[in-house]
Amino acid sequence: MKNNNSLLRHLPWLLLAVVGACALGVVALRRGEAINALWIVVAAVAIYLVAYRYYSLFIANNVMQLDARRATPAVLNNDGLDYVPTNKHILFGHHFAAIAGAGPLVGPVLAAQMGY
């Protein structure tokens, strides 16, 4: 029963990979003819989704060896200045605010949120 359940879990991803391969085949084999751009979009989305599901799992488990129990440097070296444990949503906002092109947009919003 477990093997059957495992196969059923991967079946939608296999079908998506086949759809993406067919779309790539249409793009590759239609030489000299005008084709619809939707074939390229379908192929790209299928490749991105399958890669997100399987390749990101491979990277997380085998390359980066992620472990949720492992303490971050902010916890290990908490000095209240450079290393401070922070909520993940606030940390995401800090990364977004550091983008130079978005500075004129994000700066006033952050200032308004902080009460300036």
Which properties best describe this structure?
116 residues, 2 domains, mainly alpha, single chain
Summarize the structure.
With 116 residues, the protein is mainly α. 69% of the residues lie in helices and 0% in strands.
Question: How is this structure best described in words?
Answer:
- The protein is mainly alpha-helical.
- The protein folds into two domains: 2-63; 73-114, no CATH class.
- It has helices spanning 2-29, 38-63, 73-76, 88-97, 103-114.
- Helix 1 packs across helix 2.
- The model has no long low-confidence stretch (mean pLDDT 87).
How does the SSE layout of this entry go?
Layout: H1 2-29, H2 38-63, H3 73-76, H4 88-97, H5 103-114
- As a percent range, the share of strand residues is under 5%
Order of helices and strands: HHHHH
- The whole-angstrom Rg is 22 Å
Structural class: mainly alpha
In percent, how helical is the residue content?
Answer: 55-70%
Gross morphology is: flat
Number of domains: 2
> The biggest beta sheet, please?
none
Arithmetic mean pLDDT: 87
Number of strands: 0
Unreliable residue stretches: none
Total number of helical segments? Answer: 5
**Terminal residue distance:** 61 Å
